[in-house]
Write a structure and sequence with these properties.
- The structure is a single chain.
- 36% of the residues lie in helices and 25% in strands.
- The protein is of the alpha/beta class and 295 residues long.
- α7 links the parallel β8 and β9.
- The longest helix is centred in the middle third of the chain and has 12 residues.
């Protein structure tokens, strides 16, 4: 197969109509590139996306969310403040933060009670289209958690100090896994600068969390990566802000009312949580608790 697939080829691969492919592009649910006005789909990323969903391309498959036994697991995008809050609140909720797309797929399959999302949309909003596509008519709710600054993380010994993705050309760039929301953000930011992934010099392999990305840069395994300010500060890295993203939590309505999630959510409203967010840096809590979608 070619490195890039056309819309027709993707539709054939997913066994859906081409209109469905355009819908997936509009919600940011499928990896794609837009070159001279034409949609192209990187075969490797599309294959990884299908593997991550496991349920296949029919994104409408819903989680059995009316079950009373959804596991007390928070899946989705990685965030150091979220990891800390789950532990510190003593909620009993385990963290399996292996990427926003992975979390969305696990939520649909009923493998978690909640998932953190930071998926960009074509209209500049975040997460709502992906959640409504996955959970229309299902008892899941999307609630704003935090906004956070994302940008370039620079290794300490990087000779050049890029101020944009365009200036990062030629530097060793560390990627995240295909299921990570940050890879979708990277795609959008590259398109904004009229660039394609081939314009960046990616090192082999990927890092599966914000903290792992920052650690790889701190150890000199790459020169630059796209990460959050909190991870940069924790590892003493220079940070160049590029975007503010919204990190929402999609949660099964039944799980919202249960004690584990309520314990976690009450903690997120405490002064201790706000102090920790300020200490880590790069967070805005002003929209905490705002309902963004109600399935």
């Amino acid at each position: 197969m070619p490195e890039y697939l056309t819309t027709r080829e993707v539709a054939a691969l997913l066994r859906v109509k081409e209109r469905k492919v355009y819908d997936l592009v509009a919600t940011g649910a499928i990896p794609f590139r837009k070159v001279t006005g034409k949609l192209l789909f990187p075969e490797a990323e599309v294959t990884a996306w299908i593997a991550a969903t496991q349920a296949g391309p029919e994104v409408a498959a819903k989680a059995p969310s009316d079950r009373a036994d959804l596991p007390a697991v928070m899946a989705g995008g990685h965030d150091p403040l979220l990891e800390w809050a789950l532990r510190r609140s003593r909620s009993g909720i385990a963290a399996f933060l292996d990427g926003a797309l992975d979390g969305l797929a696990r939520a649909r399959r009923g493998e978690c009670m909640a998932a953190g999302l930071h998926l960009p949309q074509a209209d500049g909003d975040w997460n709502v289209e992906a959640a409504s596509e996955a959970f229309a008519g299902a008892p899941w709710v999307l609630i704003e958690w935090v906004k956070r600054r994302r940008g370039l993380l620079l290794a300490p010994d990087t000779i050049r100090q890029p101020r944009s993705l365009a200036e990062a050309r030629g530097l060793r760039f560390q990627a995240r896994q295909p299921e990570a929301g940050s890879q979708m953000v990277l795609t959008r930011l590259l398109a904004r600068e009229k660039m394609v992934p081939a314009d960046l010099h990616f090192v082999d392999g990927c890092e599966r969390s914000e903290s792992d990305l920052a650690e790889a840069l701190a150890q000199g395994r790459a020169d630059v990566g796209l990460g959050i300010e909190a991870a940069a500060r924790a590892h003493g890295l220079r940070f160049v802000p590029l975007i503010e993203e919204r990190f929402d939590i999609v949660v099964a309505r039944r799980s919202w009312f249960e004690e584990p999630f309520q314990t976690f959510w009450r903690f997120c409203g405490t002064a201790e949580f706000a102090d920790k967010a300020r200490a880590l840096g790069g967070y805005d809590l002003s929209g905490l608790g705002r309902v963004r979608f109600n399935g």
